Amino acid sequence: MRLTFLGTGAAEGYPAPFCHCAHCEEARARGGRNIRLRSSLLVNDDLLIDYNDIVAASALYGVDVSAIETLLITHSHVDHFQPEQFFIRARPFALTPVPMLNIYAPYDAIQMLRERVQRSPEEVRYRAFQVAPGDRWQSGRYTIRAVHASHGTADPLLYIINDGARTLFYSTDTGPYTPEAWAMICEERFDVVIMDETMGTVPTNGDSQHLGMDAVLDYRALFEKEGLLRPGARFIAHHFSHGANPHHEALVEFFAPHGIEVAYDGWRLEV
Fold it and tell me: What's CA 41's distance to the chain center, in Å?
């Protein structure tokens, strides 16, 4: 399984365009892995999770997105789903053929899709499927399961994805897992876990809609204790807000002793 991080920031990106706090200014000065678009992940070359800064990401990181056949939407917040931008798949913006795109999303995101796409499904070449927590289905070579996220939309989703060789758990945006979600997670074994770390040094509690450093450390230990990680599994912190997260190198220094890697934009990872 090949993973390409098209963005690793929270809703405002990092640095935030309208912010001059110490974290944003340091990110601007350091550049490189400290510059983050909003979060999205390409799996192999044909499955995409969330659809947001795709124009910038594909240009900046030299990523070919023309083969994508499966799109998973985690939730309806605009930093994760911008259906208005589907027009770029249609003529005259795409002059070469694109494959049929199968979109899987919670019902409020499906409603956004129907209301906001200004071209027909035939022109854009997409089919839309509503999914809910607990659903399991096949899309191309992938077996996918939706898990309930603890986040502020109608039916936010996390995704467990198996490509026939490896199993990925993509876990953002979410606060602490509900008992029902945790029960589903415990049915699987993972080669890679990509986990929300939006809140940095802000303590995570039962009402949180995102996780911080403390929760990522706790879940890393819990996944290992419960035997959910296959030998050599990668555990990756992802989706960083500038508010209470330091620069990339400081995050690496903090997480490395705990067996946790820190995602960055443009990272290509073979699992």
Answer: 5
